[in-house]
Amino acid sequence: AANATPHTHLYLLLAATWTLYAAASFRDPGYVEPMDAAAPPHQVIPPVAEPSATTTAPSAPTSHLSDALLTRPLCLHCDAVLLPRTKHCHDCCRCVRRMDHHCWWLGNCVGEKTHGNFVAYRAAQASLLFAIAAAALTAPHDGAGAGTAALEVTASVVCTSLCALGGCAALMLLVFQCALVLRGETTWEKLKRKHLNASMQLPPEMRPYDRGPARNVLIFLGCVADVAGASVPP
Known about the structure:
By secondary structure, this protein is mainly alpha-helical. The chain is 47% helix and 7% strand. It has helices spanning 8-26, 35-38, 67-70, 115-137, 146-183, 187-191, 193-199, 213-221; strands spanning 31-32, 86-89, 94-97, 101-103, 108-110. Helix 1 packs antiparallel against helix 4 and helix 4 packs antiparallel against helix 5 (146-183).
């Protein structure tokens, strides 16, 4: 009777995995709206005038966009404002804030709003695969004949091996993502670090958005704003 009891923890892990998968797959990853969508219809965004010596007070803004925003470059592909840590995704055809990568398994970008869901999904996925491997390994074999028992053992070994391998792969990706979070960088920033640092005239191995492990985690969780990172060019 004890062996027939359902594995409640497996159902809970499965539900958590699918919930986190849906949250990472269907949520807005942090798209940046194009400049023409941010401006009122049929309104030309004026250029920022250079300050003159005779100017005594700042003039009233001609639109709801700030001068700092108007001076930022635009994306060549979608006309979005190139904010710090923004990258254009050619699969989504949109610019994404703090983009980590485009995940084909999710069908969505892993960005500022979905990165936490993605890491939590990886943790739940690894836990589910290891739990299934353990359940398959310890499953009772009550085959009536020798042939049936051998088939059950073979299926148990295959299921355990596949789930254990998948769990190890998910765990490695989880550890990699956690290491990036602690160091204050994304997958794309790590792969392009030397190129990005060269464009900003920084040392090749420097991580310009690293504020220390504790603050990096708080920024990742959205508890604090990366004020210092906003001063770094995109």
